[in-house]
Design goal:
Number of domains: 2
Shape: elongated
Radius of gyration: 20 Å
Strand order of the largest sheet: 5-4-1-6-7
Number of helices: 9
Largest sheet: 5 strands, parallel
CATH topology of the largest domain: Rossmann fold
Low-confidence stretches: none
Order of helices and strands: HHHHEEEHEHEHEHEH
Mean pLDDT: 91
Structural class: alpha/beta
Helix content: 40-55%
CATH class of the largest domain: Alpha Beta
CATH superfamily of the largest domain: HUPs
Length: about 260
Amino acid sequence: MLYLDKLLSQLAYPLGLAIGLALLALLLMLRGWRRGAAALLSIGILWLFLWSMPVVSDRLRASLEERVKPEPIALIPQADAVVVLGGGIRGATPRRPDPDLGQAADRVWHAARLYHAGKAPLIIVSGGSLPWLGERQPEADAMLAFLVDLGVPAHAILLEGRSMNTRENALYTAELLAREGHERVLLVTSALHMPRALATFRAVGVSVVAAPTDFEVIAEPPHPLRWLPDAAALADSTRALKEYLGWWVYRWRGWASSL
């Protein structure tokens, strides 16, 4: 199911859908249906162009990030534990012995800040390793190493290294919390991912307080360049569409509450 979910989601994203329409247009062209082929190819190009515009990408991401607000650490309440979700660090490999910090590594840094501010006596790191990535350290282990470097003692960190998606983050963390006798947690993840993560954790009965980080969208003055296609904007749009698609699928499966 994990491989099937990955395949179907790739086909639904802008690049995958545009390529699919282009291949279908080629098939129609070979069969002599030139008008239909031209129409499909035009739709694919326009669809790709739409999600490649920075102005569209920013608006889409902002629609998710605006659902949660950044809070000064002093105003964040106390909890039994900080739960930080994977997605920001790549685990070590035989050829690269150190973890690789990604764009969303702010998650781990923010969790360390919350711990040092005394908001919780424990950090739970949740994240495994996807099977198609080969021999790679679970992300939970990579986050552990980073947190220790940030001054968090190892005895204050619990590892959940089995999960491979947000649903499993919630399920396996809930099991760990029940076993340890903890209830209320501060949930740390990127602002873009926080709405779906909150809905998923609440669906399994975890009492969570959002502690978002890694806010991406900032107000920028109008400029003609923001209406031109950009590869980074396409990638950003895809990540936001992934969140909406993931939430719709989770809702359909009964894995998430409403956003």
